[in-house]
Amino acid sequence: MTKHFLVLAGLTAAFAMGAALAKEDDAPSKRFTAERIFDMEYATGPQVSPDGRTIVYVRHSMDKMTDRDTGHLWTIDLETDAHRPLLGAGSGAGAPRWSPDGSRLLYTTATDGKPELRVMYMDTGLTYSLSQFPKPPGAATWSPDGKSIAFTMFVPGEKPGFAKPLTPPEGAKWADPVKVIDDLTFRFDGAGYLEDGATQVFVVPADGGTPRQVTYGDADIGQPAWLDNNTLLVSGNTAEDRDDDPNESEIYAVKLSDLSIRPLTDRNGPDYSPTPSPDGKTIAYLGYDDELKAYQQNHLYVMDGDGRNSRELAADFAGSPSNMSWSDDGKTLYFLFEEHGVLSVSSVDLRGRISEVVTGLGGASIGRPYADGSYSVGGSGRHAKIAYTAGFTDRPAEVAVVGTNGKNAKVLTDLNADVLPYLDMARIEELKITSSHDGQEIEAWVALPPDFKADGSFPLILEIHGGPFAMYGPFFASEIQRYAAEGYVTVYVNPRGSTGYGEAFAQEIDLAYPGHDYDDLMSVVDDLVARNYADPQRLFVTGGSGGGILTAWIVTKTDRFAAAAAVKPVINWMTMALSADIGQFVRKYWVREDPWSNPEAFLERSPISYVDKVVTPTLVMVGEEDWRTPAWEAEQFYTGLKMNGVDTAYIRVPDSPHHIAGRPSLLIAKTDNIMGWFAKYDPAKQGKNDDTE
Description:
It comes from Hyphomonas pacifica. It holds the Pfam family Peptidase_S9. This is Peptidase S9 prolyl oligopeptidase catalytic domain-containing protein. It is a single chain. The protein has ten helices and 38 strands. By secondary structure, it is α+β, with helices and mostly antiparallel strands. The protein has an eight-stranded mixed β-sheet with strand order 31-32-34-33-35-36-37-38, sandwiched between helices. Helix 6 (573-579) crosses helix 7 (583-591).
């Protein structure tokens, strides 16, 4: 529940007296303890109103009774700084979007577990549901005249089969019918076994009514954007071989008058995120020519509203643009990009001239320090503003605002002022280390325990990000704070392969992963030991997904770590390519071989091939419903370690997909079990603490 506090002046003196009389041992811990995760709040999705005077955003809090991260809509008046809830208590909601005239607000919610799209009239606060939705609606967007709303929704298809099942007698209890699967991708992480059908685009009157389906077929179609009141832009891959080409997509124009559909792009490579200018004369979009590499960076393009005259904007820009928004006059395009651990927003005009507007976006979650955030543009003239999620090392994301000229940036919220100022938080230092492999600069951050002294006595945790094409940054993370609070110097690193440092740096691991990113990580550990930040006998390593495979890879190459915890790892690239939800991507882009014709290409960089080299006590952990790095990946390593007499344990997280810590209690369980495993093998604790729970 969102925290509300009533300060009673009459209690102040009594509280002070009680605190003075209390025994020191009875005082609450000033460390970031496990239960503090339930106290955290953070902001996402800030949206500026069309007049530039109000921001609505999603305020996230941890509901201890339901064990859920819950979102609520709040508003900020930019003239008075009034900060208020928009809906009543208990009204979870998300994805707010202003109507073009700012009189209404579209948002998502769920009533009795049923997904809804609702609209609120801002002058009265009254809300209504747009329709009854058999499946969850998504990607909702207003038409330019505010009369219609486009959205996506899954449409069930015909179930494949080769025999018609018999009808059981009334009251009989027969087995469930068999399930026939004939798609190449039949499972996906977070969705489980896929229902037959496809995502399509619908339109519904903004006053509510019956949704009208406007795209059809067996291919998923999404990302609706209004070119004008009668034309939608959408993106998808309608090719016959789409299952074997997971990176392909085109942009299409759909005429609502007759539902005719016309492709506007046709290259070999993805074209997506159509973003029309306010007058509909120009379409911005993202894409690239597919060269079958493991990592390929977005390029920013514009074309005329009819699909002609396509050209690249800012071809020399070193970053990878995303999340585009137009200025009110259609002369400037804003975009988000990763840059050395942080997110930034820049603007580009139609001549390709770029200006940086704001940097330091981040913090879309409280778990790990990934660079993730959002922004929106609203208003015109002197009221033109950008609202964004501001990231910090010492607190979760807040709502901030800045002029579109980059001036007068201001943080508007302080969502954890009731908790964090009273705790001893870890101090974060930035590191820039030279890799032992080739001298490349590697960026990292280290969280120092509250009582830290550079005396060489502290244990160290190397925490490795997933992806592998992702980026950590100087952002608050509950996992990092928990490790530091328990006395671990905790370092998190962007080794080669990380994004935000240019395409060439990310491409360093193409056909070489895991590989010399190992040298980058070890160079960081060497540096911290040399600084006397850590005891070389008390080193530990962990990471999830891509960080999981790197953890497993590390223990096949060195015995310097006292213990390791590989979370949701890839252990065998061959089984990954043949059974994971992104198996086709692994085969076609990351390995570029077939497992049956060249198994060695998969096995030579699989930790399972070197499991007999491991001596480090290694914990493995995975979600029971993880289809990105399925449980049998972790199980292969666990079994191999057991067969070779290495201390190991296997933790299965119930009801969890790849996002293993999606609920607050699971985030606690993950970090505390990892620390319990490390404590069991900490040389400084041998004989002192045999409790691994």
